[in-house]
Amino acid sequence: MDNPYSSPVAFDQTLEPSAGNRHYGGIGRLAYLGIAIGLGIAQNVVLGLLARDEALQSLSLGGIIVFLILSLIPVYYRLMNIGMNPWWCLLMMVPIANLFIGIRCLVCQEGYEDTKKLDTAGKIVTFIVVGLFLLVIAIAILSVTLG
């Protein structure tokens, strides 16, 4: 209910909702992570079954395309939740750019584009992602030098 004591708003003015009151829609971090893991498992199972049967091997390219399109849907809704234009999800098909979008989907909270500040959970997830990335690079360097 509107405040009856507030000043009237002219017809040519619009009231912008504050960042705390705005509802962004889409899906949150945890739902995005769960859907992404579920799609990855389903993709491996389906493509593994298609590759096992020689008669169905020709369908494996179609399966890859179907899962590629299905994987864009949760990214679309997650970017909407962050406050970004959801069509940025198309960058998930571009190497290196997909890292930028994927990390934003994992780290940023609802409405991040308005506040530009990570919450505590976002900072923890960022620390974990950066740590795992550095660990993978260190293992790759060790395997090249020792191997």
SSE map:
Layout: H1 29-52, H2 60-82, H3 97-107, H4 112-115, H5 120-146
Describe the overall structure:
The chain has 147 residues and is mostly helical. The protein has one domain (29-146). 61% of the residues lie in helices and 0% in strands. The protein is built from 5 helices and no strands. Helix 1 packs antiparallel against helix 2. The chain starts with 28 loop residues before the first helix and ends with a helix.
What is the compact description of this entry?
Helix content is 61%, strand content 0%.
Low-confidence stretches: none
Give the C-alpha Rg: 21 Å
Tally of DSSP β-strands: 0
Report, as a whole number of angstroms, the end-to-end distance.
69 Å
Largest sheet: none
Strand fraction equals under 5%
Give the overall shape. Answer: flat
Given the helix and strand composition, which structural class is it?
A: mainly alpha
Please identify the oligomeric state: single chain
Q: Return the string of H and E elements.
A: HHHHH
Tell me, rounded to a whole number, the average pLDDT: 87
Helical segment count:
5
What number of domains?
A: 1
Helix content: 55-70%
